[in-house]
Structures are given as C-alpha cells and as structure tokens.
Amino acid sequence: MNNALQQTIEALAKEKGIEADVIITAIEDAVLTASRKYYKGDENLRTKFNPETGQVELFAVREIVEEVTSPATEISLSEAQELYGEEAEPGMEIEFPKPTDVLGRIAAQTAKQVIFQKVREAERENVFDEYSGRLGEVVNGLVKRFESGDIVVEVGRVEALLPRREQSRAENYTTGDRVRAVIKDVNKNTKGPQIVLSRTDPVLLIKLFEQEVPEIYDGTVVIRGAVREAGDRAKVAVASREREVDPVGACVGMKGTRVQAIIRELRGEKIDIVEWSDDASMFVTNAISPARVQRVSVVDETERVVEVVVEDRQLSLAIGKKGQNVRLAAKLTGWKIDIKSEEEKRREVEAQFDGLEAEPAPLSIPGLDEAMVDKLNAAGIETVERMVSASAAELSAVLEISEGAAEALRQGAEAATMAAGGAVGSGMTEAVPQEGVEPLTPATEPAPAEASDETEAAAADDDGADAEAAEADATPDADVAPDTDAEDEAPAAADDADTADDAEAADETSEEKDNDEQA
C-alpha cells in the first residue's frame, strides 16, 4: 500500500478531516461514472479499488440464468459452466474485467469533478455532525474576508459566516481581527459556510456572564432572562438559589469589575442587571430601573397588561431613548407595560370623574305593563326622567288612560327617581315631601340657646341674679335656655382668685424665712 495513489488519499483525508474510506468510495464512484459515459451501453458496470496495486478495476457484471433475455447483463448457465465448471449456478454473478486506460481525458475530468463533489459532501457532513450539537456555544475566530457586508470567520479548520443582521452596529472589523461570537445555526444543505454566528443574540450575553461570574457557572445564581438591543442596551434578570448570596452584586463584582469586562467585550453596550421576582408587580418595578416607580397595578391578568406610574421627572428616564427602556422591560418580563406620569394619571382620574353621569333609569314603575312601556317608547318617553317631566295630560293621551291614573303613574315615576338619587351619591338621602305635612321653615324652627361669652356675667352681683330670676318667673311660656355655662364659670373664677391669693401669701412667707436666715 505504498503506492502514490494511496499516499495521496491519506494526505487528502488528513487535510479535510475525513476518513480515507470516504475518499476511496468517491474515487470508485468517479471511475464508474466516467466508464458509463465512455462505454454507453446497458452493461451492469462495477468498480473496485485494489489496495495492492493502487488501481481502480472496472468489471462488467452478468447474472447466470437458464434462458438469456438481455445479453448485456445476463449469461446462460451452459456458458457459465464452461468458464467456471459445475460450481456455476443460476442466480450467481460473474464479473468480466474491462480496461480503464481507454477512458480518455474527458472521462478523467468527469472523475475529478465527482471526486471533488464527494469529498465536499463528506466534509460538510462531518462539519454538521461536529457543530450541530454545539448550538449556543461561544467560539473564537479570525476575520478572513468580507462578502457583501457579511463577514467570513475562520473557526478552526472550517469557515463560519457572521451575517450583517447578526452584527452589532457599534462594532467594526478588519481582516485579521479576533471575533468572539455564539453559534446560532448550522446548515446542512446550503452553499458556502454552514456555521452561522451571531453577535446580537442574547445567548452571547448569557454565555459571557457564565464565563465571568463563577456563581452563575456553578449554579448558585441563575439567569432567568436576558434581552438586548445590540450596541445600545441590555437587561438581565438574575435570581439566587441561596438567601445569603446577592445575585445582582455577584454579577456586578467588586467595583463593577465583572460586568465591565462584559461591557468591553460588547463594545460599550450598557447592561442593566435586575433581580428576578415571581411577583409581577415587583418584577416590573425592578425591570424599569434605573427609573424609580411609584406604583404598579395589574390591569388585565389574562392579557398580561400592567400600568406603571412614575414621578413626572422620572417619566423620560423610565421610557428611555425612543422607548428603549420600557420596550426592553416589556420583553424581559413578558408583560405589556403602560407607563404614565403622576400628572397624567391625575388628569385621567379627574376626567373619569367628570365623565361620570347617572345612567337614565329604565321605565320600570309599578303599574306599567309591557304594552304601556311600548307606547311610551313610541312617543319618545324612554326614561323615568322623561316621564316625570311629562304632564298628566300628555301621559293620558299616550297611554289612553284617565288623567288621574296618568298623574298617579307620573308621581310613582317621580318617587322612583328620587329614591334612585338617594341610593347613589355621597351617602346622604334627601327627604321626600309628603302630602299634608308642611315642611319646617326658618320662622317656625326653635332658636338654639346661646351661651354667654362674657366673663363679667360670672361676677354679677346678687341683685342682678335676683332680678333675672324674677323676670324668668314672670314669663314662664318663653323658650329660654338656662345659662349653665355662666353658672359653671363663676365658681371657677372664684377658685382662680383664691388660688392667686394663696400664691401671694406663700411668696411673702418664703421672703420672711429668707430674711430670718440672713439675720
């Protein structure tokens, strides 16, 4: 096996990273294809590679049959027995050698193309088997060339493609630059590079955190989600499996060393690291950072809609540049976020209160049947309020009843309207006027008793008090409230005077004691 062809096969197999048997099979198929084009017959041709001589042998195969119907592919039993003796039996195949040195230049060119095609297919199959199980893995490569905006990256022995759509707009490369990207897809049946790389996929951000943060690598801190707008901003939600470990602090690192390494790799892309929470309101509040949220309320649980209210000065920060911050927060949390300022929310609430109007009450009054309701609706009287405003004569004409009955229905509608007005509102119910009962007026209401505010009344002399008592006895029918406050204040004033006298006496006694001590 030390012939030139065998050595060439082994060298080619080592270069392409495929098995030598694959190349040998490709050579056999190439010679067979060239032989069929040269002989142009119906013969059943077969090729074999001889490892001893290093040559590809060509045979015409014929089957032994009792009666020959196709001389190109069959041979009679008698002829076969003449060649091989009694061992020949029907159904066996006999190979007849055919020369290959007569194939010519065209046949050799055809064989060359077939060999290249087979080797290329084997190489692509080998690449697919190797990289199909490495999706989401970060690989390093060198920029080899540019093709219509796409970048061809050399990864080991194979070429990978970094499409324009998978490139960050903040990055520029030149030939020979080193690129770190994530394997996004591996194509099997396509022209050009099979491996598709990406620099914008969130998986790249996750893999970079796994490489830089040991707590994420060993599973202590878990990345719950990551979203990016490559080149501008990214948000990452992290959670800790242990209460003692701060997930955000672990990802940031001492003085931001860990996250800064990732930012440099992503060419200055801003990264917001937020703590994940199973509570939707808390998670949305964290995701809106760096803006401070006042309150979060779930609007629709089924449609996953939340309303976020922030301070007026924090609104622009919460929304972000061209809505970037709130858009990333919505992608990260999976909730539709309706963000508003406090002033906007206040105006909205005021508009809702201003727009609240009492719904007109339907025609549902005792004494009205469906036929009467239909007649009233036909006449344009569709609500209780409209019925109250109508006159008894009008109702009598519409319902074809007497005016007395119409007036009774109108009063019933009025009572229903007033009852409905008392049921809603601030909780206070207005009194309903009753027939035969006159309402109280200011002239007939009793006047409230007024207490004296003057302190001189408490010090009135005994003659003035006797005079007031005599006047009260002379007019027993008058409604006069006793001035109890004045009577209570008089003893209090006397007590205050006694207390003042006692204080002056105590002061004089203390002065006398001081003089005695000095003496």
What would a concise description of this structure say?
This protein has 519 residues and is of the alpha/beta class.
Describe the structure.
There is one protein chain. This protein is of the alpha/beta class and 519 residues long. The protein contains 18 helices and 15 strands. The chain has helices at residues 4-16, 20-39, 77-84, 104-131, 202-212, 214-217, 247-252, 257-265, 280-287, 315-319, 324-333, 342-355, 370-378, 384-389, 392-399, 403-423, 462-474, 484-518; strands at residues 44-50, 55-65, 74-76, 93-98, 138-147, 150-155, 158-162, 178-186, 195-198, 221-229, 233-240, 270-275, 293-300, 305-310, 336-341. Strand 10 and strand 11 (233-240) form a beta hairpin. The longest helix is centred in the last third of the chain and has 35 residues, at 484-518. The N and C termini lie far apart (144 Å). The model is unreliable at 422-501 and 508-519 (pLDDT under 50).
CATH class of the domain at 4-126: Alpha Beta
Low-confidence stretches: 422-501, 508-519
Spatial arrangement of strands, main beta sheet: 5-6-7-9-8
Number of strands: 15
Derived structural class = alpha/beta
Oligomer: single chain
Indicate the CATH topology of the domain at 4-126.
N Utilization Substance Protein A, Chain:P, domain 4
End-to-end distance: 144 Å
Binned strand content: 15-25%
What share of residues is helical? 40-55%
Chain-averaged pLDDT: 77
> What is the CATH architecture assignment of the domain at 4-126?
2-Layer Sandwich
- What can be said about the biggest beta sheet? 5 strands, mixed, barrel
